[in-house]
Amino acid sequence: MEYAAFAREGLILSREVRRLLTDQRAIRRDVEDGTLIRLRRGAYVERDVWAPLSAREKHVLRIRAVQAMAVHPVVAAGVSAAALWGMPISGAWPETVTVLDRWRGGGRSEPGVHKTARGERTAGQATLRGIDCTTLARTALDVAFGQSFAEAMGSVDWALSNQNQDAVSAVELSDELRGMNLRVGARHLRQVIGFATPLSGSFGESRARAVIHLLGFEAPGLQVRFADAEGEMFPDFYWAGVRVAAEFDGRAKYTRDEFTRGDPAQVAWREKKREDRLRKQVRGVVRILTEHVERPAVLERMLLEAGVPRRGRS
Questions:
Q1: Cys staple from 245: which of 65, 235, 250, 266, with CB 3.0 to 4.6 Å?
Q2: Structural contact between residues 44 and 14, judged by C-beta atoms closer than 8 angstroms
Q3: Residue 7: its pLDDT value, please?
């Protein structure tokens, strides 16, 4: 069956289809043979539309399905609001949609929907892509609330990022936190806000910086400028006292087309040439990979061998 005429933002609602069709079993047959994918009772998407979507976009479509079938107005929150804002998160995008519960006191989740009432009285709203969601400041705190210090930093740094046109300030985050009036978790969020920076270049870089801090090393300078005849360089981390720089190399740099443009080898070559230039101006360069961040003991050994100092020590 041809569903394109019924789709709205990729979403197909059975009530719309059945109003115009006499064959009430068509949707069931197409779900059974895999032509349609059921997102929620009454809400579907064509397999050919669903398959090429990114994990984030699939989550956004799940939000649309919840919105379309909801009895009460829906306000996306937590990681679901993060998907709308474009905020990076730690881990995979879930199949469950998180919404702010303002109507029945919270705590009454249902299949495919997680309802939260945390700070709902003061939560501001925005509308993105036609969907109501929490503001960026509230979204950043909600995401950080359920994560470890290191995992939270990538999302919160992104919310503050100089590269983010919707960026918020640390003051806005602190004001938002006070308005949430949390009984638990406030100390954790204050620590996250206090450590966050608008200078981080990526989620992985933020996480690496947090792990370096947790390992007890001195705080590095961020995006410190170096220049030579070929141009400027801004290493991710720089410890001026020992003249050691560090660069975070996430997997994305060598695997995503937006970075590689189809040629990962060329990316690696450019990075090598840049590192060679940087080494002429510093005493040492540490290249930090995702696997090092995931194994802090390895990262600790690398930094110690490079001469990076601990906090409070010479």
A1: 235
A2: yes
A3: 76
Does 250 share its domain with 121?
Answer: no
Q: How do residues 179-207 score in pLDDT, each as one tens digit?
A: 998 989 999 999 999 999 999 989 999 99
| CA–CA dist 30, 113 (Å, integer) | 25
Query: For the chain, how many structural domains are there in total?
Result: 3
Same structural domain for residues 35 and 88? no
pLDDT at 255 over 50: no
Structure tokens at 34: 């895999």
Are 160 and 230 members of one domain?
Answer: no
Confidence grade of residue 40 (pLDDT, cut at 50, 70, 90): very high
Q: Tell me the per-residue pLDDT of 209-237, one tens digit each, with 9 for 90 and over.
A: 999 999 999 999 999 999 999 999 999 99
Whole-model pTM: value is 0.86
Beta carbons of 286 and 306 less than 8 angstroms apart = yes
